[in-house]
Amino acid sequence: MPYVNIKVTGGSEAPSAEQKAELIRGVTELLARVLNKNPQTTVVVIDEVDMDNWGIGGESITVRRAKAQKSG
């Protein structure tokens, strides 16, 4: 039973319900096609992580995006 965990930023950047459904379908189909996994036993979980709780290079995504807006 494959288990796939997709993590995305939440808030205003969060994917829509339709986008999530497409991700779930697409990942399930990919595992079936490439690895011959049974779609009926494939689990896909999408976690939305608040941008304050996701960091890159020592800074939260919130801080990085604020800096990018000021400089861009």
TrEMBL record:
Active site: P2 (proton acceptor)
Pfam families named among the record's database cross-references: Tautomerase (PF01361)
GO terms, molecular function: isomerase activity
SUPFAM superfamilies listed in its UniProt record: Tautomerase/MIF (SSF55331)
Keyword Kinase listed: no
Protein name as catalogued: Tautomerase
Family named by the database record: Belongs to the 4-oxalocrotonate tautomerase family.
Annotated TM spans: none
Residue span(s) of domain 4-oxalocrotonate tautomerase-like: 2-63
EC numbers, comma separated: 5.3.2.-
Entry keywords, A to Z: Isomerase
